[in-house]
Design a protein that fits this description.
Blueprint: H1 2-20, H2 28-38, E1 43-47, E2 52-53, E3 56-57, E4 60-68, E5 71-75, E6 81-85, E7 89-91, H3 93-97, E8 103-107, E9 111-117, H4 118-127, H5 131-152, H6 157-169, H7 173-178, H8 181-189, H9 193-205, E10 209-212, E11 216-220
Antiparallel strand pairs: 1-9, 2-8, 3-4, 4-7, 4-9, 5-6, 5-8, 10-11
Helix pairs in contact: 1-5, 2-5, 6-8
């Protein structure tokens, strides 16, 4: 029996390691169909970098159709950045059904969005039979958050930092020029500055990573496991 439990434990560990690197596929077609229907019903808004967006005005909630720029979602309770979008996307379906208002939207760069009243959006979604597309987007958000939690919850500091270094390294050169490495990791994890700096400094000393003065323009050479 003890051997059985050890086998189950090992199998679960292998499953978790596999699942951690298997991120859900972005439902591009569903997003495009919803944007095509909802954008003409919205009001265009240009948002400056670092500005926060409200989920509602009074008791009238919004959907946001995000088209250009870089938008982040952060937890209000502790400011942890949980997701970033650079491709066209729609925010607000969860808040439309369950208005917890536990997250906030923030423009990381100048952004172009369309704001749509949710009662108008619901009518259009019903009329065009797009509830399956809404479900696909909600499932994508849920599974993305699950994968994120698997990467950082109950994990050691070193693999968490390495995960976000790889994530940052995969971004465009333009983004890496304006994003500070320490801030990028700390905003997404809540780890202390000293623990992150110790790992980054050690990796740079051993030539596993390179960056310019100030902690910008990350380049990964090779990260030890």
């Amino acid at each position: 029996m003890k051997g059985f439990f050890r086998l189950i434990s090992c199998s679960c560990s292998r499953f978790i390691r596999f699942f951690m690197i298997t991120y859900p596929v972005r439902p591009k077609a569903a997003i495009e169909r919803l944007i095509a229907v909802l954008q003409p019903l919205g009001k265009k808004i240009d948002i400056a970098a670092r500005k926060r967006l409200p989920w509602d005005k009074g008791h009238s909630p919004f959907l946001y159709i995000f088209l250009e720029g870089e938008m982040s979602v952060s937890r209000i309770s502790d400011g942890i950045l949980v997701a970033t979008a650079v491709d066209p996307h729609i925010f607000g379906f969860s808040e439309m059904f369950h208005p917890m208002r536990s997250n906030m939207l923030r423009a990381e760069t100048d952004c172009v969005l369309y704001r749509v009243e949710t009662d108008v959006a619901e009518q259009a979604i019903e009329q065009h039979g797009l509830w399956r597309d809404v479900a696909e987007i909600l499932a994508f958000h849920t599974n993305t958050m699950l994968c994120r939690d698997l990467q950082i919850v109950n994990q050691r500091t070193y693999p968490i930092v390495c995960h976000y270094l790889r994530e940052l390294d995969a971004l465009s050169e333009e983004t890496k020029e304006r994003v500070n490495i320490l801030s990028y990791v700390q905003e997404r994890t809540g780890l202390s500055r000293s623990s992150i700096l110790n790992i980054i400094s050690s990796l740079k000393t051993d030539r596993h990573i390179d960056f310019v003065r100030g902690g910008y323009k990350l380049r990964i050479n090779s990260l030890p496991e």
